[in-house]
Amino acid sequence: MERADAKESKGDLCASSEEDQGASYRQTNGKNGVFPEPSAKHPQGTAQEVAEGGLLSLELQFRHDELASYTEYRKTELTHKSADWINRASNAFWLSTSGTISAKTINDLRAKTLAKYECESSKSKVLTFAVAFLKYLAKIHLDMRYRLFELFLERPRRIKIRKNVTNRIVTKEDIQNILDHIRRAERRGSIGSSRAEQYTGFTVFGALTGQRSMATIMKLTVAQLRESLRAAKPVLRVEPHQDKIRMEHYVPLHPQVVEAIQPLLDGRQDDELTFQYGSFWMWVKRQQISMSRFHGHFVLGDLRKFAEQHGDAIGWDQSNRAYIMTHGVSSVEWKHYRHPLPEHVYDIYIKAWKDVQLAV
């Protein structure tokens, strides 16, 4: 939804149809040609007020409950992480404006946002929300003047440096180090055997399937994995609501994945979530496990990075990889033509990954 708002046309904000402006037109004779000429005033004098007073002196009002209502609307069906950014942007908008839309308050929001965040993506999230809210106010107040203030939310143009590769490189040795760290923690008694099984299962599953930790792995149920293990070629069916881009797809399970997740299913109800995402995420955050190829610590997203990067090293088929990881599958080809069968997905995957072994 945010992407849709960001891509809307930035045309003339004052322009609108004849019906909107309420103008009547007369025509000159054929000799002089045909030229529309407005002969009626704008409704409520909205455009005239801006022209006479100037945008810098214009002030418009909105209520806090309007912002709160729009914020809740924007968070509908979003993940916790995405909803958190909506809350941040909404809070920033209110702190800068306090219910008054003006050149000063909107400029203040822009300046604070650019100063607070270094990441271009973070800046974009806040400023894009602000633009979208101005459009919302223009619609519910039937007053297009709100949209004029989008002018003050434009980001500065910068020369982008295109990197050839990511600097966050995750190797098989890094994944092995995570598993060893879990094993050492269990031996020390800092985590129990059940938690060690959970953390090991999550690590092996994430590294060898490349699924997104928050959007997919944390949502998988015991029933889903039990069903997948019954087949000779175990393949998990990920449902649309369990995928970031809402794409149903099959995920082949490596023999080591089968071995690692089996203990997590024993004695549990079908409707339970298989993995304890929150527990593992907090534990990893506290451990600050160093990585070998860059200066930083392990995060759960590195499991997916490993699958992608190691896939290059072992010659993993690009089409098979894109489908399993639902990465780069937005083309017409994928939407309307391709439909891999589970047994074929498994065969192509296992051909590349069968010799990859982790010491669990």
Task: Supply database-style keywords.
360 residues, mainly alpha, hpI Integrase, Chain A, 2 domains, two-stranded antiparallel ribbon, disordered N terminus
Shape: elongated
Rounded to the nearest angstrom, the distance between the terminal CA atoms is 41 Å
Arrangement of strands in the largest sheet: 1-2
Helix/strand structural class? mainly alpha
Please give the domain count: 2
Query: In total, how many beta strands?
Result: 4
Helix content: 40-55%
Order of helices and strands: HHHEHHEHHHHHEEHHHHHH
Averaged pLDDT, please?
Answer: 86
What top-tier CATH class of the largest domain fits best?
Mainly Alpha
CATH topology of the largest domain: hpI Integrase, Chain A
Return residue spans where pLDDT drops below 50 for at least 5 consecutive residues.
Answer: 1-48
The portion of residues forming beta strands comes to under 5%
Largest sheet: 2 strands, antiparallel
Provide the CATH architecture of the largest domain: Orthogonal Bundle
Radius of gyration using CA atoms only: 27 Å
Number of helices: 16
